[in-house]
Amino acid sequence: MDIVVCIKRVPATDTAIKIAADGKSIDPTGVTFELNAYDEFALEQALRIKEQLNAGSVTVVTIGPKECKKQLDDALARGADKAVLLSTTEWVYDGASTAAALAAWIKTVPCNLVLCGRQAVDSDNNQLPANLAGRLGFACVTEVSKLALDNGVFTAERDIEGAREVVTCKTPAVVSCHKGLNEPRYANLKGIMAAKKKPFVEQPVQLGSKAMEIVALTLPPARAAGKIVGTGVDAVPALIAALREIKVL
Amino acid sequence: MSNIVVVAEVRGGALKRPSLEAVTAALQLAGQSGAKVAVIACGAGLDAACAELGKSGAHKVVAIDGPAFANYSGDAYAKAVVEQCKALAASAVLMAHTAMGKDLLPRVSALLDTGIVTDVVAVGFEGGAFTAKKPVFAGKATLAVRAAKAPFVATLRPNNFAAAAGGAGAETQKVAAPGGNLLSVVKEIVASGGGKTPLQEAKVVVAGGRGLKEAQHFKMIEDLAAAFGPGVAAVGASRAIVDAGWRPHSEQVGQTGKVVSPPLYFAIGISGAIQHIAGMRTARTIVAINQDADAPIFKIADFGIVGDAFEVVPALTTAIAAIVAGK
Ligand SMILES: Cc1cc2nc3c(=O)[nH]c(=O)nc-3n(C[C@H](O)[C@H](O)[C@H](O)COP(=O)(O)OP(=O)(O)OC[C@H]3O[C@@H](n4cnc5c(N)ncnc54)[C@H](O)[C@@H]3O)c2cc1C
Predict the structure, then answer these.
(1) pLDDT digits over A38-93, tens only?
(2) Which whole-number Å values give the CA distances from B301 to B84, B121, B138, in the listed order?
(3) Are strands A163-170 and A153-160 parallel, antiparallel or unpaired?
(4) Which residues contact B294 (CB under 8 A, 6 or more apart)?
(5) What is the Cα A113 distance to its own chain's centre?
(6) Which domains, and CATH codes, for chain B?
(7) Confidence class of residue B117 from pLDDT cuts 50, 70 and 90?
(8) At a CB cut-off of 8 Å and minimum separation 6, what does A15 contact?
(9) Ligand 1 neighbourhood includes B310 CB (under 6 angstroms)
(10) Distance from C-alpha of B24 to C-alpha of B164, rounded to nearest angstrom
């Protein structure tokens, strides 16, 4: 099975966001970037499927700036066979143009499975996998936390509101990966050395016109300063009174 | 005339409440853009759901009904929904940002060859274009966008718009659910909550963290939730106690868990790490109980008690149970 893993370089989750002068993007000064946490589950699952079948290939791809080489190299060191950087200097936020560009590239390579993280923790869109599947005509299951492959058919489990869904899914497919699916491995020294000899392709990407234009990126209004109603168990009546006053009780 | 289309979510014949919230947003956009509101429902045996939708204020309901649609299939539903969107001349397509909405609407947008904005908290129509606001960077910033392509497609964060009610009773047009080759299909739904209120739909979320010290003490969180009466409150957890194996990941609130915005949120023995706050900062009212007066959670809490959860929570549970019993 030829597997494509879509990954993204994102600001670390503990970043304090500052808005850039254009009022439409973040100020990257002092921001550390890392591999999107959910994409680690996607990469790990790809490596496990290849190990299970003892055949096929794992290609990692990202759309982003040249600095993404670090995250792609890390993926190669963990065991991916090939890395592709579709390079752009734009902030990749627009779901439609991203999905269109990725779909166009995927159509040029052998691929029967696309694995993604459930969402990138910068734009928090949670739309790329199903969007991509629509454009490729592939089957799709999203937010999967258990996945088994038998005779080219996947059985996936995912959490829905108050229940768990078991989904069967034919190939070719796009599967988006959630926490709980696996425990991602990290690169070891041998992997890091091996990665240096693996193919790394960089090509510019044309993202096309945006389906959604950014009007503004703003910091949310600060929550009004809260109030400590008291200390210890004696404060319970004061809390109840406060909640009744604003009619939530 | 064009339509603002709402894709309703029906599971096991029951209409999911966030669908009615989407109708509210659709009615707003219809008023602003001079359109009507049509609701599309997919499933098998939709009569009850359609009767409810008919009274929501929507102008029309389209039921794609039949045994072939008894179980959710992203590809089959998307194809059928897109066909109806075209027939309805949809200028916008809205659905709740639920497990189904997140799976279905991006595919619909791809088939309509248009854009999509997800997890939206506000919609508008200005200068001839649809607009939306959505949290990004786990709620640390808000992105305002304007649609440059038609139709406008958006998923809406649950618990953020009021549920629509009080329409005259719209007609339902029935369409037979098409059979055919399903690429993916739900085989089974296993109730994991034992009929519990879904975290993202709960009116009250009571969340516990490492301050509870041991897994067994989570019972006090469950007791407080239960005090609100059946179907009102759900329990949540910080990542620390999910990683420790005390609670399932499905209860985790935060950047790598669920984003909730209930009217009332309790953070008990939770320090208020930036990743946790990302999942609950849009709750209308936040109550924190923590023994450390300097815990960051107090910076965003509306009301706080500095104290030992082991003393405060049982007293609070008793007090709330008394109020609920008196209602
Ligand atoms: C990539 C990434 C993603 C993450 N995603 C999430 C996420 O989705 N959700 C999430 O929650 N975290 C997430 N985290 C983890 C987050 O950084 C914190 O580590 C976590 O939220 C801490 O959980 P906690 O508040 O329960 O524990 P702690 O930080 O240990 O806080 C425990 C609190 O309990 C208080 N306490 C102790 N005893 C008592 C008592 N008897 N009575 C009252 N209070 C008491 C203490 O004062 C303290 O404030 C993520 C981290 C990373 C790196």
Answers:
(1) 999 999 999 999 999 999 999 999 999 999 999 999 999 999 999 999 999 888 88
(2) 45, 21, 18
(3) antiparallel
(4) none
(5) 16
(6) 3-176 (3.40.50.620), 199-326 (3.40.50.1220)
(7) very high
(8) A31, A32, B137, B140
(9) yes
(10) 5
Q: What is the pTM for the complete model shown?
A: 0.92
> Can you tell me the distance from the alpha carbon of B65 to that of B246, in angstroms, rounded to the nearest whole number?
42
- Scanning the structure block, which residue is given the tokens 């910033």? B141
CA distance A246 to B33: 35
The CATH classification of domain A2-219, taken from the options 3.10.105.10, 3.40.50.10300, 3.40.50.620, 3.90.1150.10: 3.40.50.620
Helix or strand run (H / E) with residue B79: helix B74-87
Neighbours of A54 (CB within 10 A): 6
Of B162, B236, B164, B226, nearest in space to B198 by CA: B236
Closest residue by Cα to atom 7, ligand 1, is B254
What's the burial of A148, exposed, middle or buried (CB within 10 Å: 0-12/13-18/19+)?
exposed
Of B55-69, B162-176, B183-197, B232-246, give the lowest mean pLDDT range: B183-197
Helix (H) or strand (E) holding B108: helix B99-111
CA distance B129 to B269: 45
Cβ contact B312:A232 at 8 Å: yes
Q: How is chain A split into domains, by residue range?
A: 2-219
**Residue B33 near residue B151, CB atoms below 8 Å:** no
**Nearest chain B Cα distance for residue A47, angstroms:** 22
* Residue in this structure with the two tokens 């790809």, named with its chain if needed: A46
Region of residue A184 (phi > 0: left; psi between -120 and 50: alpha; otherwise: beta): beta
Interface confidence (ipTM) of the complex:
0.94
Q: Is the CB of B309 under 6 A from ligand 1?
A: yes
Q: Give the closest residue (by CA) to ligand 1 atom 39.
A: B211
Write the single-letter amino acid at B253: V
Tokens linked to B195: 């009929």
Q: Which of B73, B137, B327 to substitute to test the interface with A, most A CBs within 10 Å? A: B137
Q: Is A37 in the pocket of ligand 1 (CB under 6 A)?
A: yes
Cα angle: A50, vertex A51, A56; to 5 degrees = 30
CB of A212 within 8 Å of a chain B CB? The answer is yes
Q: DSSP state, B8?
A: -
> CA of B305, closest CA in chain A: separation in Å?
5
Q: Which of B201, B202, B281, B292 is nearest to B18 (CA)?
A: B201
Q: Tell me the pLDDT tens digit for each residue of B287-324.
A: 999 999 999 999 999 999 999 999 999 999 999 999 99
